[in-house]
Amino acid sequence: MNDTPLPIRVLGCSGGIVAGQHTTSFLVDDDILIDAGTGVASLTLDDMQRIDHVFLSHAHLDHILCLPLLLDAAGALRHAPVQVHALPETLAALHRHVFNNQIWPDFSALPRGRPYMNLVPLKTGEVLDIGNKRVEALPARHSVPAVGYAVSRSMPAQPAPCWVFSGDTGPNRAFWERVNALDVGMLVIETAFSDDEAELAAASGHMSPAVLAESLTHIAADKTFPIYISHTKPAEVSKIMGQLKAANRNLSRPLDVRWLATGQLLHL
């Protein structure tokens, strides 16, 4: 049984690009990538060739942008295709709009006889055991089909604490129902827009501070874990932070809310 801490490297967690900030991507151990935003560009070639599995939350550009470049950089150095896991709708969008031999080569078929990637459909609620790690696809509600993820060590004899990633999502009771059933060690959840842009947040399937604060009230009373805020738009970080701090103070049970930063290393 492996009970060593599970390292999660924050390659990117911003809702946009600016110097020092990159879009969503997390490296779990050294072989699983959760989303493939611009943060992947901080990896070395050795890092890239050790990635065996990529789990995509959805098909938006800020979450998949570096996947084609990762495959191009490291594909020839590997002995097996990278397994790219996502909802069928996400995989269809990738194949139609990116890996179409016009925008980028179709690395699910190329090079012939030894493709660089294998597209693996998954569904919400599916659980995969990969080596000594377990990955579960969680429900999300976004402007396109989407999932979040729960990642933990595989512990056959007992539940293991999970790193939970909401992905891009608006309010979603099904997500909290599943979170309350898990042993959550930490939660990464998005707050893309300030309350000044609450209408835009709602229309695009994102959170604003007031909406997130209300959503956090669905956490069961016996659950206590740090909540890391991600996906903030670079121009609104200070405003979002201030609004969320104020909203959290007004909750009947203020929570342990923290801000996530590119380059941070989390240990579960």
Automatic annotation (TrEMBL):
Coiled coil: none
Domain called Metallo-beta-lactamase: residue spans: 22-206
SUPFAM superfamilies xref list: Metallo-hydrolase/oxidoreductase
BP GO annotations: cAMP catabolic process
UniProt GO molecular function: 3',5'-cyclic-AMP phosphodiesterase activity
Top-rank taxon, per record: Bacteria
PANTHER family reported in the protein's UniProt record: TRNASE Z TRZ1
Name assigned to this protein: 3',5'-cyclic-nucleotide phosphodiesterase
Species name: Comamonas serinivorans
